[in-house]
Amino acid sequence: MYSLEFFSMNKSAMSLRMSINPRAVNVLYRTIAARRGQTVMKCAQKEGLEPSAYVIEALRHSKAICFDVDSTFCQDESIDEIAKFLGVGEEVAALTSRAMGGTMDFKSALEGRLSIMAPTQRDIENFLMKHPHQITQGIPELVKLLQAQNKAVFLVSGGFRQIIHPLAIHLGIPLENVFANSLVFKADGTYAGFDENEFTCRSGGKPAAIRHIKETFFLEPVVMVGDGATDLEARLEGAADLFIGYGGVVERRNVAEKADWYIYNIQQMIDILAH
Predict the structure, then answer these.
(1) What does the alpha-carbon distance between residue 258 and residue 156 come to, in Å, rounded to a whole number?
(2) 260 is a catalytic site residue
(3) Which of 18, 22, 64, 161 is spaced 20 to 30 Å from 80 by Cα?
C-alpha cells in the first residue's frame, strides 16, 4: 500500500516522471488515493481548509489550469450584468441561479436568458464600454505565475466570447485558449441566437472542452477552477484531473461538498504554487 511518503518524494523525480509519461502519473495519483481508502472529493467545511497532499501535488504538477470566468475569474456574472444593463436583470438572474445550482439544464437556461435579453451587437459594444471587467483579486498575479511555470491557462466559460476575448487579451491569454459561447447577430446587428457548435452552450460542455484540450494541446493533468455545478461537472465526468471550487463570490454548498479543494481566496492557490 502506498503511503503519504509518495507525495513528499523528491520534486525533481516527480517532474521527471511527468515529463516521461504524464498519463501514467495521472493514473497513479488516482490509484494511490483509492488504495488509501480515500475519496479525493472532499468538502471544505470552513474557509482556509488546508489542501490534501493529493491536491498539492496534482496542482503543482498540472500542465494546464482551466478557469470558469463568471464569479471566478471575474467578480460578476456577465450575463446577469448585461441583463441589468438591458433592464431585465431579475428575470435573467433567476435562470442563472438555477443553471449554476444544477437544477436546470444549461442550454435551456441559456436559451431562456438570451430570449429575454435579445441583445443587439450595439448593446454588447455599449456594455463593454461602460462596464470594465471586474477581475477577481489575485487573478492577474496567478496567471503570471502559471505562465512563468509553463502551465497553460484556459478560460472555459458559459459566457460569451464577445465579452471574454478582451479580458483574455488584457491578461495575455491566447484566444485559442478560450472556450465560450458566441452570440450570433443578423446583418443589421439584431440578435439572431448563439452558436450551438460551441462546447459550453450545453450541459456537459465543460467536460467536453477539457477533453478537447487534452487531445488537441496534449496537456495533462488538467485542473478546473470554478464556482458552479457546470465546473464541478468537468471533474465528476472524469475530464478534469482536479477540481478546485471557488466560493469567494458565491458559495455553493452542493459544489463545495464535492470539490477536491474549496477556496475563498485566489491567494490560496498562489501560496501552493509559489513554494
Answers:
(1) 20
(2) no
(3) 64
